[in-house]
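Memo to structure team: turn this sequence into structure tokens by end of day. - J.P.
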Amino acid sequence: MAECNYNHNTNSITPARVRSPDSTHAPTRLQIRAIPTSSSDGTAQTGNRIVQIQMSHDYLEQFQIIHISPQPEQTIAQPDSYVYRFLTSQSSQPISVTIDLEPEQMGWVNGEIGLDTEPSLEFGQWIYP
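Reply from structure team:
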């Protein structure tokens, strides 16, 4: 199992490998823990907070998204990335998001992932059978 940890204050991004017996390639599981922020679109007035996770197209084109938990409230396609938006009513508690991905091919994959309140993390990942 290969693992990469990213920690900044109490936000964290953790790509990790997990094995699946019915899979040609081992799926990748991204585990993201982030503190929600108030929004500029009025959702904070209803007591909800927002977490936005941005992932580069270059990275996601190498995978099929199998599952995202919890489901994002909204997915926004941008020119070079996708933004997954999550709402939570627990304003001071971190939200944990798990994204299971199935690799399309073996080899080296570069990616970039970020939270709306933190600098992006560029990383490389080796995909093997």
